[in-house]
Amino acid sequence: xxxxxxxxxxxxxxxxxxxxxxxxxxxxxxxxxxxxxxxxxxxxxxxxxxxxxxxxxxxxxxxxxxxxxxxxxxxxxxxxxxxxxxxxxxxxxxxxxxxxxxxxxxxxxxxxxxxxxxxxxxxxxxxxxxxxxxxxxxxxxxxxxxxxxxxxxxxxxxxxxxxxxxxxxxxxxxxxxxxxxxxxxxxxxxxxxxxxxxxxxxxxxxxxxxxxxxxxxxxxxxxxxxxxxxxxxxxxxxxxxxxxxxxxxxxxxxxxxxxxxxxxxxxxxxxxxxxxxxxxxxxxxxxxxxxxxxxxxxxxxxxxxxxxxxxxxxxxxxxxxxxxxxxxxxxxxxxxxxxxxxxxxxxxxxxxxxxxxxxxxxxxxxxxxxxxxxxxxxxxxxxxxxxxxxxxxxxxxxxxxxxxxxxxxxxxxxxxxxxxxxxxxxxxxxxxxxxxxxxxxxxxxxxxxxxxxxxxxxxxxxxxxxxxxxxxxxxxxxxxxxxxxxxxxxxxxxxxxxxxxxxx
Length: 504
Description:
Blueprint: H1 22-27, H2 36-50, H3 52-61, H4 82-109, E1 115-117, H5 121-129, H6 135-154, H7 157-164, H8 167-188, E2 192-194, E3 200-202, H9 211-228, H10 234-253, E4 294-295, E5 298-299, H11 301-333, H12 345-361, E6 367-369, H13 373-379, H14 384-397, H15 401-404, H16 409-424, H17 435-450, H18 454-471, H19 480-493, H20 495-503
Antiparallel strand pairs: 1-6, 2-3, 4-5
């Protein structure tokens, strides 16, 4: 593995090697201290860490109904086979959009980040937007969100905000994301579960029970052993080995999916081979860009303002989730420059913004950068070539979803937990004796996992930073853009009362 220690060493990027290979010249593989094989391993690890979205997004977008009581396929859920067909359509489109946009990130952004439908964003579309309008209208709002955030990139505002954030807060974002994805991994594996009292607990009634948990434990300890022995491909080996173990266990015990009656079943994917089927991509292009703003055929100012707040919420979450992910990936891979900026920042943000547009046009909700990309970077990914490999894997998943679904979350989650360990090492870079920075950093770090939101953690940290500077009479030390962002976050945190006031 590239990581000889928990924290990757930052190295200045050297010029591309003098070679006739277009791949070497474009991606500067040698300049970033990598190899094609290393990029392949890292890209595949990122894919397996993200692949759950192919199964999870259809369960959200594909099963919810719009204001007319129709599924995204345009059919009533009461029709035989309608829900299954809807889920299949969303799965195919999810993999397609993720594959295309991740390849574009690799080729244009030249950065090892995977893109796919954003969790949280898709829930907002399915459970908040769709019940108020038709599915094409809801996806039209997603397209508008993508267009607006693209404009912010082209005008330089998004990059300027990134540069205005103090270094300590950027570090805190990386650490917080490390804890967040470790928490996600523990939850996806069923090691940590939600309950009424206490809010979360270890396994079932405080005990680790069931064969799937064993798969997770074996995968995690195998990964730890391979890491300390410095074995190349440790994360990929862990995922494959744990998956094989899971397939054997399922073949013998027939556990099935997790449910209220089957608490020790598989959390997401059941590790068994399904049936291959031709992909249905008919959801592409089902978008209505203006219908959501009209009520009974008439343009409604009240509805326009209310929907504007919701679009703003989508935009803000997308805006700062990506910023945090970009920092975390660059810091973990040691590929930030002397100003703590990743190379090709504008291109990275532009592709990410266009991914939101593509997600709406593909009827799968806004696509965004995935923090699970840090898993691939932990495996050695350093260039956009890794993203190309990740994207190709997503495209193959369109027709090979039964193979992808063989990988249960219990087999992939150890990688997320372990990457949390790699990223938390950066916490020493925060000056904990400087309250002006330490308190905002603390809030950023703890609220990402506790609130289960990267955006909430970033917002709390930014607001605390501005507040402390104002209280101490140091307002001039705050970059003007931080004040703009602080106001944006105040609106974001108060969107519930604001919507109630508008609609009331």
